[in-house]
């Protein structure tokens, strides 16, 4: 098991918490078609918070549960900063959690 797994698992919980606190957590899943986008961050079918909830968190959970290799890089904060450029205060907690996630991914390769 990668020694970063516990810290990453904790960070994923913090990302979920921040999505919920901001009111960006959906109770109903997007359609299968929307979830099957091949575009980066599913920009053509999902809002960024939906991608985080329904794609990113699910994939990362699968990686941790199945002891799969972690990604070599992460640029999620960069995308969040573009998406939330006009909502800096509202997205501060989420961006902070995503920054820490990015740091954990690139930290100990």
Automatic annotation (TrEMBL):
Source organism: Pseudomonas shahriarae
This protein's name: YqcC family protein
Source species, domain of life: Bacteria
Domain YqcC-like span(s) in chain numbering: 8-104
Gene3D superfamilies referenced in this protein's UniProt entry, alphabetically: YqcC-like
Pfam families (UniProt xref): DUF446
């Amino acid at each position: 098991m990668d020694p970063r797994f516990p810290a990453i698992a904790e960070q994923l919980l913090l990302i979920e918490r921040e999505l919920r606190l901001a009111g960006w957590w959906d109770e109903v899943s997007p359609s299968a078609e929307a979830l099957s986008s091949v575009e980066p961050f599913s920009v053509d079918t999902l809002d960024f918070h939906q991608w985080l909830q329904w794609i990113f968190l699910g994939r990362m959970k699968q990686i941790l549960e199945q002891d799969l290799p972690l990604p070599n890089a992460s640029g999620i904060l960069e995308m969040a900063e573009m998406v939330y450029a006009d909502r800096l205060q509202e997205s501060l907690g989420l961006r902070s959690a995503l920054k820490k996630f990015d740091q954990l991914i690139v930290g100990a390769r």
